[in-house]
Design goal:
This protein is mainly beta. It is built from twelve helices and 52 strands. The protein has a domain of 77 residues: Carboxypeptidase-like, regulatory domain (Immunoglobulin-like), CATH 2.60.40. It is found in: Cell outer membrane.
């Protein structure tokens, strides 16, 4: 023991006697990202700058010296030299200036930034606990509104960046993962909703950057109209080896839902009252009749809403990661499994995925990179809407007087319901809806330094999506039972396979040089080619044997239909970029891109889009050099981007050869009127921003103001169907404007060696207005939305509800938008613009994080307001007795008009079969959707080497508990469902579904226990 101590002392003594040597190492931020812009100084010596993009440095120093590393903002950190190879030096996020990657090998520092973008780091994505990373962005990026297509795990996530940019085209932003543009469409054919981005494991993501203004998005030309989301996947660190294992287990329930539906006694009273008012009979005389018709025992009450849902919603996750590499290569690999149950009894989503990413320094001038993501997800779950087989719908409206089972234990298939066979419990067990989603993202690239200043980079990527789905309806009851009326037999099977594949190849030549130590110039020129292919094949069969339990198509006797189809489109692009900065004080950037698309006719295939931006780093001026202001920047940008999301063949006259039969022969028909004059939608955007940071950037703020003008809006206009046979055709001559302001603030009130507290908040305001459309005439899209000059494109257009006539219990509507005259006659109530819109006007987020030694505590809140949601199926279950056999909510008992409460009633008289069409579409079913959401919280403790011991192979053990969707506060007391599942439900064909509640599964609230081990 003594000899070991003595030898150790002699060794240390010898080390400290070393003369000057080359000390080397790697500087990275706390997330393992290379810090490539800094100065290193041996305390008391001269500063040495380095520009190695991988953060590697070599400097003359000896053991015992102290290295002072200083970032571009002047913040610094000390590192004691204890070896010639320092390994990895980690700096906190506040001490460094990170390089933001904008794509095509283009990157810039914060001081060079002229546009508007926000970067969210991996830890801020993972702590939220969502299945897909896009859902985690809600509340963390100003100007971005994230919705939820459904509470179904793996569901589609609608995203809007800075409002509406198209009426009929997609409003989804372009998502680029490691340089590969990926699809964000809901590609499912059977599943109620699906999200291709849910196939990406969030633990493999390094960071997500959201490009919002034309300076950043014009680099992507026609695909950047709706904003761009850049996802950077993790890579390892040179010269290190790290392993980690993370596991989580969770339980959940419904995040928000008012449980105010009637019990059995309440429904029997409601049905009887409605029936009595319809027939003129007395309640006492008719009550036994209704009870007998319902087959109710007068005592039992069956909670169908609870019965169709899982009693205990669980989740589990396992992730194994490796991060490391040599001095020539770094790589990151991950294998994960995730299983998440939904609210409905047959709702589940499980995903297994793997990822491998590598960078290889082949030679001094040649670098190669490769990454591949493979995943397979399986989703089961019910349909949505008012389908009888939708258990969410049936659970709400099924009479609680109806028993689940017969006395012998079999399912009750003689229900007093819209269809007696549609027992949702039986249907969930006997029917099947299975969807298997396969996804592969493969990326291969490299760059070569032709000279010290000239670099060539190439990247080829593939996004492959394959959907294999099966739908089965049993032959004995429900949708599959025709009672012998279908000559092909009972039961129904439908199988489909869909492929959506994208390949992308980009090449860029970059020249970068610094002149006279103050002039930094970067020139980039490149090309990009993109090809999209979509194909689908499906088959149907009927004639399953009674009692069948095997859902495959080969178990049915009779083929009923089969078909295949496909489509494709392509882009070809040329782009250029200039970036210049002077003495880190003034920056100028300019982009130009020429895009060609197969979606437009011969004369309009090509569009040119551009952007310019400038920034002034005021804090770099001499008059502020001695102040405590670390950052003060004024920046501005202006540019154009395009949008061509109109479908692959919208400009063409389409002809279908086999369009049925005519006189016994195969007949063809023109199926679409083309328009060769269709051209790109063009968005012109102005952005002015101010960035501010003081006290070593412990207080940082950003404010942006923008105006977006969309020209040549693509939309359909009605035609005279009697003369042409077509009801509409495509055109683009409209104008739309969006204005907004965004602000974000980060404060670190306390920072010591053991304790740190940080607070971040953001707020955004956005509103859009149609300025010119259809020659100023109204353009009606459906029964609840319309477009017209001077109105928001998501504004609701319907009748104005005025309540109840207190004299006779009849419904009341306002006759017009002046709201001065009421009527009980539906045909006298005009449909008008309501002043209520579906897209939130205000969005905000607030997050806080505290760390004390090993303790970690964090929490995040989000707010959305200034918008409304419409209950699409409220006319069924809030029908004033129209559907008296269906359940309703408790408020009818105290609110419905009776002769006894005339003068104070809030609802019309309940009448079986209908009260003067009181349940017709109107603002009665329109609710204010303003809400505050406690989105996530986490508390944990990190056991480090000081506790685990130096001899243990474990480096860190982090034990934590976190919650997601913990509490939802709504401002409208009458709103009974979660507004997030309706506020932004945008399908791929436009915005008409936005703000419509469609009886989807409710959002989940989850509580998760997890352990993460680093070794």
């Amino acid at each position: 023991m003594r000899r070991n101590v003595l030898l150790s002392f002699l060794f240390l003594f010898a080390v400290f006697q070393l003369v000057d040597a080359q000390v080397k190492g790697v500087i990275q931020d706390q997330d393992g990202f290379a810090v490539s812009d800094a100065e290193i100084q041996v305390r008391g010596g001269e500063a040495t700058s380095f520009t190695d993009e991988n953060g590697a440095f070599e400097i003359d120093a000896k053991v015992g010296d102290v290295l002072v590393v200083t970032d571009m903002l002047g913040s610094s950190k000390d590192f004691a030299v204890n070896a010639e190879d320092m390994g990895t030096l980690s700096m906190s996020a506040e001490v460094l200036t990170e390089v933001v990657i904008l794509g095509y090998g283009i990157s810039e520092t914060d001081e060079q930034k002229t546009g508007a973008y926000t970067t969210v780091k991996s830890e801020d994505i993972e702590k939220v606990g969502t299945l897909s990373f896009d859902q985690a962005l809600q509340g963390q990026v100003a100007g971005v509104n994230i919705g939820a297509g459904s509470g179904q795990p793996g569901s589609y996530t609608p995203i809007n960046i800075r409002g509406i940019t198209s009426l009929t085209g997609s409003s989804q932003p372009l998502v680029v993962i490691n340089g590969v543009p990926v699809t964000t469409e809901d590609l499912s054919g059977i599943a109620a909703t699906s999200n291709p981005l849910a196939n990406i494991d969030p633990s493999t993501i390094e960071n997500v950057t959201v490009l919002k203004d034309a300076m950043g998005t014009s680099l992507y030309g026609s695909r950047g109209a709706n904003g761009v989301i850049l996802v950077t996947l993790k890579k390892g660190a040179y010269g290190t080896d790290k392993f980690s294992f993370n596991t989580e287990f969770g339980v959940g329930d419904v995040a928000f839902e008012k449980n105010d539906w009637l019990d059995a006694q309440g429904h029997a009273n409601y049905f009887t009252t409605a029936y009595a008012n319809a027939t003129g009979g007395s309640f006492d005389d008719l009550y036994p009749v209704i009870v007998d018709a319902l087959g109710w025992d007068g005592v039992s009450s069956y909670d169908w809403k609870d019965a169709v849902r899982q009693n205990s919603i669980s989740s589990q996750k396992y992730i194994f990661n490796y991060s490391g590499g040599s001095d020539k290569m770094r790589l990151f690999s991950s294998l994960s499994y995730n299983d998440q149950e939904g609210i409905a009894s047959n709702s589940d989503y499980n995903r297994i995925s793997g990822y491998l990413g590598a960078d290889w320094k082949v030679k001094e001038k040649l670098n190669l990179n490769f990454d591949v993501t493979l995943s397979k997800a399986k989703q089961t779950g019910p349909t949505d809407g008012s389908a009888f087989s939708n258990p969410i719908f049936a659970g709400y409206v099924m009479s609680p007087t109806q028993s689940f089972y017969n006395p012998d234990g079999s399912y009750n298939l003689d229900l007093y319901f819209l269809n007696p066979e549609f027992n949702p419990l039986a249907l969930q067990e006997a029917n099947r809806s299975d969807s298997d989603f396969y996804k592969a993202i493969v990326n291969l690239g490299g760059d070569y330094d032709i000279t010290n200043n000239l670099n060539f980079a190439t990247k080829f990527g593939v996004d492959y999506n394959f959907y294999d789905e099966l739908l089965y309806w049993n032959p004995d009851f429900g949708d599959g039972n025709s009672d012998g009326a279908d000559p092909l037999g009972d039961g129904y099977g439908y199988a489909s396979q869909r492929n959506f594949n994208t390949w992308n190849w980009s090449n860029a030549l970059k020249y970068q040089k610094t002149f006279a130590d103050v002039h930094d110039l970067t020139l980039t020129a490149g090309t990009e080619a993109i090809k999209y292919n979509y194909s689908v094949v499906f088959a149907e069969r009927k004639g399953y044997p009674a009692g069948n339990t095997k859902p495959t198509l080969d178990n049915a006797a009779n083929p009923s239909d089969a078909s295949s189809s496909g489509s494709d489109y392509s882009f070809m692009s040329y782009f250029g970029r200039l970036a210049y900065s002077f003495d880190n004080r003034y920056s100028l950037t300019a982009n130009i891109r020429r895009d060609g698309s197969s979606r437009f006719g011969t004369d309009n295939k090509w569009g040119t889009f551009w952007g310019v931006g400038a920034a002034w780093n005021i804090n770099r001026e001499a008059f502020l050099s001695s102040s405590s202001i670390n950052e003060l920047k004024l920046r501005g940008s202006y540019g154009t981007v395009g949008n061509g999301e109109i479908g692959n063949y919208a400009w063409m006259n389409l002809y279908r050869a086999a369009n049925g039969a005519y006189l016994g022969q195969a007949a063809g028909a023109i199926t679409q009127l083309g328009n060769n004059d269709l051209k790109w939608e063009t968005t012109k955007q102005l952005n002015v921003g101010l960035d501010f940071g003081i006290f070593e950037n412990r207080l940082r703020a950003t404010v942006d103001y923008y105006v977006k003008n969309v020209e040549d809006l693509l939309y359909t206009v009605p035609t005279n169907a009697s003369s042409s046979g077509f009801t509409s055709y495509w055109t683009n001559d409209g104008e739309l404007q969006s204005r907004g302001i965004e602000a974000s603030l980060t404060v670190v009130p306390v920072r010591t060696d053991d304790f740190e507290w940080s607070i971040s908040g953001n707020y955004s305001y956005n509103d859009s207005e149609i300025q010119n459309l259809n020659d100023g005439n109204i353009s009606i899209r459906n029964g609840r939305k319309a477009w017209m000059n001077g109105h928001n494109p998501t504004e609701f257009y319907t009748r104005l509800w005025a309540g109840v006539n207190q004299e006779n219990g009849l419904p009341l509507w306002y006759t017009d938008e002046t709201r001065t005259t009421t009527t009980s006659e539906l045909n006298q109530a005009a449909q008008v613009f309501t002043g209520k819109q579906a897209l939130p006007v205000h969005n905000a987020g607030l997050s806080t994080s505290l760390t004390y030694k090993g303790f970690v505590l964090s929490s995040q809140f989000s707010y959305a307001g200034g918008h409304s949601v419409y209950d699409t199926w409220g006319f069924v279950y809030n029908s004033d007795g129209t559907y008296g056999q269906l359940n309703t909510r408790e408020d009818w008992a105290n609110g419905a008009w009776t002769p006894d409460n005339a003068g104070s009633a809030t609802l019309p008289q309940v009448v079986y079969g209908g009260n003067n069409q009181s349940n017709s579409a109107s603002t009665r079913y329109l609710y204010d959707a303003d809400n505050i959401r406690w989105r996530s919280a986490e508390i944990g403790y990190r056991f480090g080497k000081d506790i685990l011991g130096e001899n243990l192979f474990l480096n860190n053990v982090y034990v934590y508990v976190k919650g997601y969707n913990l509490v939802v506060w709504t401002f409208d007391d009458d709103l009974w469902f979660d507004p997030e599942v309706a506020t932004n439900d945008v399908d791929y064909n436009g915005i008409e579904n936005m703000g419509l509640f469609n009886l989807t599964q409710p959002n989940l609230r989850q509580f998760i226990f997890g352990v993460k081990i680093d070794f």
